[in-house]
Amino acid sequence: MDNKVIALCGIDTGVGKSVATGLLAAFLSGQGKKVITQKPVQTGDTGRPGDILLHRRLMDAAWNEYDERGLTCSYCLPFAGSPHLAAQIAGCRIEAAKISRASEILTAEHDCLLIEGAGGLLVPLNEDLLQLDYFQERGYPILLITTPRLGSINHTLLSLEAIRTRGIRLLGLVYNLYGDNPFEIVRDSRRMMERALREYGFSCPLLLMPDYHESRSLNWQPVVEVVL
After folding, report:
1. For 182, phi and psi rounded to 5 degrees?
2. What is the rounded CA–CA span in Å between residue 12 and residue 39?
3. CB 3.0 to 4.6 Å from 55: which of 14, 37, 41, 49, for a disulfide?
4. What number of other Cβ atoms are within 10 A of residue 57's Cβ?
5. What domain range includes position 143?
């Protein structure tokens, strides 16, 4: 893999970013890479951040020194809301410099850093900074997670437009098949999303991600497109 840092972002909240991040980390670790994951902002949680714990479980890895030092999650905020609001309620402000410093340390000591975003692309980290602009400023390529649930075509196309407008490199569109969705929607949404990739000028593939249990049993390989 040529990309030392990858941002895994979703079209919305609850689309499987944490699972995709953990599975990709496990896959890369199996290829002999020294991999670490980062969730800069976790909301709706206290103590050890749940998404980092899920990453470690999927990686078959233990809580580590970087987790303990707070480098993999700079902000773990109790209120389940947008990062900027959760920080306000907690009496703090999310600072880009703090997250960047943590990423730099993690990157220096690992082959690959996978950064899981919070919610959708344009969530505000603070009053002056959107999450996607933060990733753009640092030149991170994006792996975008989507689903076949109703409404996802709209969210996916809006996300692709935002990525294209900012000139960000898109590595792939991960189609998370988890959930009890009608086959007609699953099939047609995939068709529409593949067409959108072409029309927006992206050369990356649409990658299928089975549900959690199937992904693990099949040794999910996100660099290989699976035919539905």
Report:
1. -55, 140
2. 16
3. 37
4. 12
5. 5-34+94-217
List pLDDT tens digits, range 165-198. Answer: 999 999 999 999 999 999 999 999 999 999 999 9
Structure tokens at 122: 């344009």
Q: Which residues are identified as catalytic?
A: 39
- Say if CB 41 and CB 53 are below 8 A apart: no
- Number of domains composing the chain: 1
Report how far apart, in Å, the C-alpha atoms of 135 and of each of 124, 143, 212 are: 12, 12, 27
Q: Is the dihedral of CA 151, 193, 205, 187 positive or negative?
A: positive
Q: Residue 101 is which amino acid?
A: R
**Contact between residue 119 and residue 12 where contact means Cβ atoms under 8 Å apart:** yes
Residue 89 lies in a domain: no
- Tens digit of each residue's pLDDT (9 = 90 or more) over 129-164: 999 999 999 999 999 999 999 999 999 999 999 999
Compute the distance between CA of residue 18 and CA of residue 89 in angstroms, rounded to an integer: 24
In-domain check, residue 60 = no
Asked whether residue 51 is assigned to any structural domain, the reply reads no
Q: Is residue 86 part of a domain?
A: no
Check which CATH number belongs to the domain holding 137 and give it: 3.40.50.300
Structure confidence by residue, pLDDT tens digits, 100-130: 999 999 999 999 999 999 999 999 999 999 9
